[in-house]
Specification:
Elements lengths: L2 H13 L2 H8 L3 H15 L4 E4 L2 E4 L1 H28 L5 E7 H18 L4 E7 L1 H9 L5 E4 L9 E6 L2 E6 L12 E3 L5 H12 L6 E3 L3 H9 L5 E4 H10 L3 E2 L7 E2 L2 E5 L5 H12 L3 E2 L2
Parallel strand pairs: 3-4, 3-5, 8-9
Antiparallel strand pairs: 1-2, 5-13, 6-13, 6-14, 7-10, 7-11, 7-12
Helix pairs in contact: 1-2, 1-3, 1-4, 2-3
Length: about 290
């Protein structure tokens, strides 16, 4: 049961087809099929089955795919930990960040860190909250920059940075908590969860319009589609240019600090990056 076979199966599970997996891995389709077949023989259970002209994962295959991703992530984490422990300034750091943090908070810090530690191998994944926390749980990320960690997760908060959520609209849009439309992110977004909790707390159920990215939500609010709950960091420029205004909504702004979060045993290179964040103004975690 080799790492190569595990990786091939994980990619097949992600892509859903032998052809797509072969293209991503730069191998032949027959090589993908042979690798998955060999893995199934090792396990003694079928992992895929025919479905029309394609294949699908069996129930056993779907379960095993979850573990395969964790095994691969843990192997990468172990490799990064060993390299970082030997020489933190030449280790590997796999970052994952929510979209707003990646757009507004991370670039300056990341550029300064790279200048200070040019030999660190950096990788960055950007996505909604649900995806980045899943990446940490699956050992696919060493450090997450996002909102509050989900309840029940075994993580270590290494540093925090103050941030506020504000309600914004285009100038001239009249605001009524119960009737003005709200422009929101897709399900799984941290700000979407915060907006829904805020409206529920105030017993309000206004019309909503769902847009697929933070940029689209900000643009929609600026175009007059409604109000939006967003991080102040994400709209600072739009506010200064007058494209948006902060709405005097009851109970706002909401304090929602950024968190730098690792697993239970952060690598030496992860700690090096967190020290860089603290030096730039973040507050050390508990």
């Amino acid at each position: 049961m080799t790492e190569s076979r595990l990786r091939t199966f994980a990619v097949l599970a992600d892509t859903g087809s032998v052809r797509a997996a072969a293209e991503r891995l730069y191998v032949t389709e027959s090589a993908v099929s042979a690798s998955v077949a060999a893995l199934a023989r090792d396990l003694g259970v079928p992992l895929v089955e025919r479905a029309g002209r394609g294949i699908v994962l069996t129930p056993a295959g779907r379960v095993y795919a979850v573990y395969a991703r964790k095994l691969l992530g843990l192997h990468e984490e172990a490799r990064a930990a060993a390299r970082g422990e030997h020489e933190p300034g030449a280790g590997r750091l796999r970052l994952a960040a929510v979209t707003t943090a990646a757009d507004q908070v991370l670039p300056e810090s990341l550029a300064a860190f790279r200048r200070a530690w040019p030999r660190v191998e950096l990788a960055l994944e950007v996505g909604p909250s649900r995806r980045i926390w899943a990446a940490l749980e699956a050992h696919e990320a060493d450090l997450v920059l996002g909102g509050r960690p989900p309840a029940g997760t075994r993580v270590t908060v290494l540093a925090t940075c103050d941030s506020e959520l504000v309600v914004v609209s285009a100038p001239g849009v009249e605001f009524d908590l119960h009737t003005t439309p709200w422009v929101m992110r897709e399900p799984g977004s941290g700000t979407r969860v915060a907006a829904e909790a805020y409206l529920a707390e105030h017993e309000a159920a206004p019309p909503t319009l769902v847009l697929g990215s933070n940029g689209a939500v900000v643009a929609g609010a600026a175009a007059g589609l409604g109000v939006a709950l967003v991080h102040h960091d994400a709209v600072r420029r739009d506010l200064s240019y007058g494209r948006l205004r902060v709405v005097d909504a009851p109970g706002t702004p909401l304090l929602r600090p950024w968190h730098a979060v690792a697993g239970p045993t952060p690598t030496a290179t992860t700690k090096l990056f967190v020290r860089h964040l603290v030096d730039s103004g973040w507050t050390p975690g508990a």
